[in-house]
Amino acid sequence: MEETRYLRGLETVRKLDEGNAARLEEALKGIAPDLYRYIVEFAFGDILSRPGLPVATREIVTVSALAAMGTAQPQLRVHINAALNVGVPRAQIVELFMQIAVYAGIPAALNALYLAKEVFAERDAKGLS
Question: Tell me: the pLDDT tens digits for 14-69?
């Protein structure tokens, strides 16, 4: 069962961002390798792989929640990229940050917009949409 969750999680995370699993594993291997496995199994293997929502909708929800938190910029960067990778348009990402301003505050929205601007520029430099 655990190996199935792990493999399903790896498949899901690779659909969102091919290099993300490797970067996360590398970042945690020297300090908390079990946390890496838990994230892959639970977040990606159990939750994000569920059939109840399309993957693009899940990424919109994730980006919105991370932006509203205002304290998870590295994770927000990963999920802005993931949202773009699964077809969420840039304009829609910007629009959801406009919505965040109403419910989570203007500073959270501005921080998210500034980060999105960086991500968009990085992707442009790489020739990615």
Answer: 999 888 888 999 999 999 999 999 999 999 999 999 999 999 999 999 999 999 99
Which is nearest to 64 in space by CA: 39, 27, 33, 97?
97
All domains in the chain, ordered by first residue = 1-50 (no CATH), 52-129 (1.20.1290.10)
Give the C-alpha separation, 118 to 128, whole Å: 13
Q: What is the pTM of this model?
A: 0.92
Say if residues 94 and 82 touch (Cβ distance below 8 Å): no
